[in-house]
Design a protein that fits this description.
- The chain has one domain (about 5-190): 3-Layer(aba) Sandwich (Rossmann fold).
- It is about 20% helix and about 35% strand.
- The protein has helices at about 15-25, 60-70, 80-90, 180-190; strands at about 5-10, 30-35, 50, 75-80, 95-110, 125-135, 145-150, 155-160, 165-170.
- A 9-stranded mixed beta sheet has the order 2-1-3-4-9-8-7-5-6, with helices on both faces.
- Strand 1, helix 1 (about 15-25) and strand 2 (about 30-35) form a beta-alpha-beta unit.
- Helix 2 (about 60-70) packs across helix 3.
- The longest helix is centred in the N-terminal third of the chain and has 12 residues, at about 15-25.
- The termini are close together.
Amino acid sequence: MKPSVLLVDNHDSFTYNLAGILEESGLCKLKVCFNDQLRMGMMKSCDKILFSPGPGIPKEYPQMREIIERFGASKSILGICLGHQAIVESLGGSLFRLNKVMHGSRQQIQLSEPLDPLFLGLPKRFHVGLYHSWAANPSNLPSSLHVTVTGRDGIIMGISHDSMDLKGLQFHPESYMTEYGHKMISNWLKSK
């Protein structure tokens, strides 16, 4: 049976790319909802939740924190860019502002957890598209999170929770600049 996915739209144009990948995969039943129109009851009918990218910083989107706190232990949640940052902050970590804004940049990243289900079948290094000016602070990353991907200069590009199905990607798998982006989304949809 196909999992039902709720794509939380943080008012970002990249949400359309994510929705397209999800629909084209044929691996899920998709519902898209703007973050400010969410009702917590919607979470009960979905199997997986995908937080889209968005402008600003996570504290401007309290809905993501509430979803993580209430449903992180029972739902599979993947956060992209802003969503990744929301997972970090919700669990007690912090962000820092990058010296150089990474909007429309392409960079090679390295998997530190190649056996993570999200990265099955991927090479250890590949290129990704970056669109962010904030990143997870490695000095106080919550102990429940481990780094799955790093970028140049050691920037955290991916995280996974030790006991819950919470994953975050700082880069954009939906960007045309990202290699294997569709594969990562497909892997997430297929994971239990």
